[in-house]
Each structure stands twice: as C-alpha cells, then as structure tokens.
C-alpha cells in the first residue's frame, strides 16, 4: 500500500510540476517586462518647432472633413501634412479645392502615376504630360509606390524594373517642373532573409506573414535596391526622396556613401525611427553631417505614435519603449539634436525642395 501511495504521490507531484511549468510558459509576443531602470524621462507629445510631415497618406482627402486632421495636427505642432496619395486627374483637383476652401496652407498633395499600359507606343510621354497637368492643377510632387519593382507589369506581362527606360520621360518631367519624387522601393532586407531565430523581423513576419519575401518574390532585395540607385544616378537633374532612409537606416555608413555619391537624393525616416533610436551616437553624427538632406516623415497616420519620433529627435532620454513591439522589441535612446538641426529636419529642408508651401507658419 505504501508503495502504491508513494507512486501516486510521485505521479501527482510530476503532474503538478508539469502543470505549473505550462502555466508559467509565455509566448514571446506577450512578454513585455516593465523596466526597473530609473533614469530621467521627458515624454514629448508636441514637437519643439512646427514641422512638415512629408510622408502621409490620406486617400479620402478629396471629400473628407479636413478639420478632423487639423485637430490632431495642431495637438502635435504639425504645420503642414504632405498627402502622398493624391492620385491624379479630378482627385487632385478635388483635394486642392477642399484644402483651399477649408484649410489653405495646411496640406500639400503629391500626384501618383497609373502604370497601366507600360510598353504601348508613347506611354512614357503621355504619363509625363499627365504629370504636368496634375502639377498645373495643384500637385507639388510625385510619389512612387513600392508596386514599381514589385507588381507593376508591362503590356506583355513582364515585371517593370524601377529604372526601366520606358519611364524616363516621367523623371525628366519631374526635374523640369522642379518637383521632388518621393519613391519607396522594396522593403526591409530581413523580409528576404530566412525566417529563423536569427531574423530580427521574425515577430513582424510571424504576425504579418504576407510581408515575407524571397529571391523570386519578385526579385532579390539587392537587385531592387540597385535598380533604384541606377534611377537616381541616371536622373541627376531630378530631386529624389528615398523613403524609409532608402532601407539603410541600420547601415548608416552605407547610406552615407550613397548620399555622397548622389547629391540629388534626400531621405526621410518614416517607419524607421526604431533603427535610429537604438544607435543614438552614430545616428546623431549622421544627422549632423547630412542635416541638409533629411526630412521628417512618419508614414502611417496614427497620431499618438509621433511622440516616439519627437523623443528620439529632441531628448537625451535612455531606454524608452517603441510604440509597436513587432517593429522593434528593443528600446529607444534620444539623439538630443540641436535646435539648428531640428529646424532643418522639421521644416527648412522640406521648404527648400517642395514648391508652394506656405512659409508663414514657420520661424526663421
């Protein structure tokens, strides 16, 4: 009987330990420890200077109530929003009319290209003419989505490369019109890497599986990025804004080389502030050296997330959280940029390259 009881106790203890172990197990996605580090904190919800967000998307702008946007913009000190999703034709006209009627001077609209028909005779010239018409109707720049290089096909079903010569009239026209071209090519390099324990973007790919890429989906990362760089080199008369720091925010040495080589290229840091915030010393030096080449961009319109950007740019705070764990499970550090650099990043550089922005709302 004692042996049976002892065996029973052993089995029960085993199951209790196993149950406790199972109860203590936790998915990495749920692990969010509260830091015990005690350091000075300076949360910011309002930028030190008025700023221009050069990377925003408001598809409903032609008919939307702009007052809803203005309310949030004023809270954070955003003086001008650049809507990159202006599309073309009547949608540009309607957006401009909505702006002029309700909040003149607070919004800038960029046009977009409809790539249907690439390969037809005279397509490039017709697209350039359409861009010129959109600029005449109020557009002040051109936005190119990452679909160019990914999914845009010509009339024969072939992928259209970012630097396809059939598109050259578009870039040449942008240069003649003196409007910038903000272009997004590819995605972060880890999207192409094996999805294993070594991939920093594992959590993002696990929660957003549609973002996983490969060398045949549609091409290797390096090929897509090189296509973009050839485009920049081939059109030196045109000002390009490489979205997301050209996907080199985690390799500022390489980005530095590219900017030195291509003086017609600017960069904006939409959706990559987490990369800058984990290397504050190197990023700060980069901002000092290229203070005339960097623009403020955010990308997704989530007003409360701008606070992370302000804090990285303006403070010397240490070890504070990012706003999306799946983008960055690490902590941020502030760069503590000088007022002179902040003014350039927040508004002066954008005022220099984007035409027709109302300058009255900005300090000298």
Summarize the structure.
By secondary structure, this protein is α/β, with parallel strands linked by helices. It is built from 13 helices and 10 strands.
Strand content: 5-15%
For the secondary structure, the number of strands is 10
Could you name the CATH class?
A: Alpha Beta
Report the uncertain regions.
Answer: 1-11
- The CATH architecture can be given as Alpha-Beta Barrel
General description of the model:
The chain has 13 helices and ten strands. The longest helix is centred in the first third of the chain and has 23 residues. With 364 residues, it is an alpha/beta fold. The strands form three sheets. It has a five-stranded parallel beta sheet with strand order 4-5-6-7-8. Strands 1-2-3 form a three-stranded parallel beta sheet. 40% of the residues are buried. It is globular. α9 links the parallel β6 and β7. It has a single domain, classed as Metal-dependent hydrolases (TIM Barrel, Alpha-Beta Barrel). α4 runs parallel beside α6.
List the helices and strands and how they pair.
Blueprint: H1 2-24, E1 51-56, H2 66-76, E2 78-83, H3 90-102, E3 107-109, H4 123-136, E4 142-144, H5 147-150, H6 168-177, E5 181-183, H7 202-207, H8 221-234, E6 240-242, H9 252-261, E7 265-268, H10 273-277, H11 280-289, E8 294-295, H12 306-314, E9 320-321, E10 331-332, H13 339-353
Helix pairs in contact: 4-6
């Amino acid at each position: 009987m004692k042996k049976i009881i002892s065996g029973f106790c052993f089995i029960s203890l085993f199951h209790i330990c196993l149950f406790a172990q199972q109860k203590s197990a936790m998915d990495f996605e749920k692990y969010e420890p509260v830091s015990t580090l005690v350091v000075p904190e300076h949360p910011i919800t309002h930028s030190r200077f008025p700023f221009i967000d050069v990377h925003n998307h408001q598809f409903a702008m032609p008919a939307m109530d702009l007052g809803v946007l203005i309310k949030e913009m004023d809270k954070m000190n955003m003086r001008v929003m650049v809507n990159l999703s202006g599309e073309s034709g009547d949608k540009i006209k309607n957006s401009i009319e909505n702006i002029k009627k309700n909040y003149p001077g607070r919004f800038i609209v960029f046009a977009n290209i409809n790539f249907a028909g690439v390969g037809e005779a005279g397509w490039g010239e017709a697209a350039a003419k359409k861009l010129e018409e959109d600029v005449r109707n109020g557009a002040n720049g051109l936005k190119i989505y990452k679909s160019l290089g990914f999914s845009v096909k010509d009339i024969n079903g072939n992928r259209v490369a970012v630097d396809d010569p059939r598109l050259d009239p578009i870039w040449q026209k942008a240069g003649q019109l003196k409007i910038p071209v903000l272009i997004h090519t590819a995605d972060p390099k880890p999207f192409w890497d094996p999805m294993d324990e070594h991939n920093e973007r594992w959590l993002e790919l696990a929660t957003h599986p549609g973002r996983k890429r490969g060398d045949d989906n549609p091409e290797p990362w390096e090929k897509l990025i090189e296509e973009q760089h050839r485009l920049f080199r081939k059109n030196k008369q045109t000002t390009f804004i490489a979205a997301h720091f050209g996907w080199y925010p985690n390799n500022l040495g390489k980005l530095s080389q590219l900017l030195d080589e291509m003086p017609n290229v600017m960069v904006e840091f939409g959706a990559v502030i987490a990369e800058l915030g984990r290397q504050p010393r190197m990023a700060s030096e980069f901002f000092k050296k290229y203070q005339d080449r960097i623009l403020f961009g955010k990308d997704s319109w989530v007003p409360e997330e701008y606070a992370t950007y302000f804090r990285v740019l303006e403070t010397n705070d240490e070890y504070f959280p990012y706003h999306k764990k799946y983008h960055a499970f690490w902590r941020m550090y502030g760069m503590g940029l000088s007022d002179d650099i902040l003014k350039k990043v927040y508004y002066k550089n954008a005022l220099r390259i984007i035409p027709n922005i109302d300058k009255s709302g900005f300090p000298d």
